[in-house]
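Example protein
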Amino acid sequence: MKIGNKIKAMRLKCGLTQQELASRTELTKGYISQLENELNSPSIATLCDILEALGSNIREFFIDVQPEKIVFNENDCFQNVTDAYTTTWLVPNAQKNEMECITVIVEPHSKTMPDNPHEGEEFGYILSGTVTLHIGKNSYVCKKGESFYFISNKNHYLENRHSTPCKLLWISSPPTF
């Protein structure tokens, strides 16, 4: 970890000059400059004084928090391909989130594996084609532009009875895919 670089970034975020930080910490502007340019290292006590002047503390300073990834592309996706259907996880490691988003392509005259009853809710939006959604003993035909929503307390699966593939966006909360 480059301590000086991190202190400089924090100082700039606070809108302080080197002189202002030096005055608040009873250090010299030259010392702050050398520190930010990695030409010296502060004692623990000096680092604590600097961090306090920057509205932080030693614990927060050394926690290396990675920025949360917000936007994902196809390189981030993971696929499971079978003869009957292809599942693409759109958000990696979504099992740690409140919901899980996938796309499913159900091949012609094929069906997905049945999913046993479980906690949660599921939503799907048909992007292309037509699919039959089976929930318990009931079946529902869903076409392009239509959506479905159900509580996942019964066996459920998708079936494509047509000669063209069906692609849909499927969201489960909590993650179960």
About this structure: The beta strands are 78-81, 85-89, 100-106, 110-111, 121-128, 130-135, 138-143, 147-151, 156-160, 166-173.
